[in-house]
Design a protein that fits this description.
Length: about 375
């Protein structure tokens, strides 16, 4: 049978966003792939260079609709490195709480979208049910349900609301019980195991060479997490473990990538509970907006040629921001803003993991890598 190219996307449920995957097939077997990106490129980096440092956060919120808080925090840390800002310790604990709740919500969004990819609609309904709890908590912090605009250069927008600690502990305790229901539903499902185990192998050494990070590389047994390897904020003061799988000799398959995210959600929940217990001043104390306990007096001007950089453990891998000061001649804008998206690096490699499998395996393989095209195209 002659080989031919088929196009999956950009409007295709498998792509989890607007991008095209061109697949070369020989019958039902995939023999080559070619990802085509750039459909929703918005020029975020160039827009940031025309905004002052305090107005860039909202654009970073929109880099990934499923994980807005992690991206805005990633930017804030690089801006604080550029502006040499010291952040109050209480604000750092609040940031960790916000980021880890967002990580759970992001992974729930992934698992909820992935279950229908492999024929399980119940998993989607369950995951979105728990995601609503996380969204409620994040709404208390930021004031909205998707784009929070929560971190500030020098701290956070507002302190933990009154009663937040009690509600957060109750919802996370319930969530830790519900995770066991996910495992019972999926780990004991023959259909789910057939679609995930032994499918979409990714070798750890190849992922490292290609720059793949985050849950995808940890599913291959590579113990690399920015929060652990290069501690920032107050992660080194919290009790938690890196979620790492032990794959087969062939590498990490779809099932390993699912397992590592389930464990990471559990660790994020435990980390958040630990942060609530250790936050300076107590989780029930509330300070007014702008109080020095949650927001330091930060300069908003950067000298020309000064640089700021930070790498951050995003929900999908290692994100990076590189800023250069002195953009508008007054130091209020960055001269250069460069963003490193983990999925921009991962997608070309993930598409090659389909070679040798059947067309029917493509949705389960690509979905297991948790693609987000908003951050990819920027």
């Amino acid at each position: 049978m002659a080989e031919m190219w088929i196009s999956m996307g950009p409007q295709h449920p498998m792509t989890h966003g607007l991008w095209t995957l061109k697949v070369k097939v020989d019958g039902e077997t995939v023999v080559d792939t070619e990802p085509d990106l750039g459909y929703i490129h918005r020029g975020v980096e160039k827009i940031c260079e025309a905004r002052d440092f305090t107005k860039i956060t909202t654009y970073c919120d929109r880099l990934c609709y499923a994980s807005a808080n992690t991206w805005s925090h990633s930017y804030i840390y690089s801006a604080e490195d550029l502006l040499e800002v010291e952040v109050p310790e209480r604000a750092e604990f609040i940031r960790v709480i916000a980021v880890e709740l967002q990580r759970i919500a992001s992974h729930l969004m992934w698992l909820g979208a992935y279950c229908p990819d492999v024929g399980n609609l119940t998993g989607m309904v369950w995951c979105l049910r728990e995601r609503e709890m996380m969204m409620d908590l994040l709404q208390e912090l930021g004031g909205s349900r998707m784009h929070y605009n929560f971190p500030r250069v020098g701290g956070v927008k507002r302190d933990l609301p009154i009663g937040f600690s009690m509600r957060c502990r109750a919802k996370l305790s319930l969530f830790l019980e519900r995770i066991q229901e996910y495992e019972a539903l999926l780990d004991e499902s023959t259909i789910f195991l057939v679609r995930t185990q032994g499918v979409g192998y990714a070798k750890p050494e190849e992922m490292v060479n290609h720059g793949v990070t985050g849950p995808n590389v940890r599913a291959g047994g590579v113990n690399y997490d920015v929060r652990w390897a290069h501690p920032y904020s107050v992660y080194d003061q919290l009790d938690w473990e890196v979620a790492v799988e032990r794959p087969s000799i062939k590498g990490a398959d779809n099932y390993d990538r699912y397992r590592v995210r389930v464990e990471e959600m559990r660790q994020s929940a435990l980390m958040t509970l630990d942060a609530l217990n250790k936050i300076p001043g107590g989780a029930e104390t509330h300070y007014a907006e702008g109080d020095e306990k949650i927001l330091s007096k930060a300069p908003v001007r950067a000298p020309e040629g000064a640089t700021g950089f930070h790498h951050f453990e995003d929900s999908r891998g290692e994100s990076m921001f590189y800023l250069v000061g002195g953009g508008d001649g007054r130091g209020k804008n960055p001269y250069r803003c460069s963003i490193r998206s983990p999925m921009f690096i991962t997608l070309p490699y993930a598409s090659k993991c389909m070679i040798g499998y059947k067309v029917a395996d493509i949705p389960s393989i690509m979905g297991s890598f948790d693609p987000c095209i908003g951050e990819t195209d920027r």
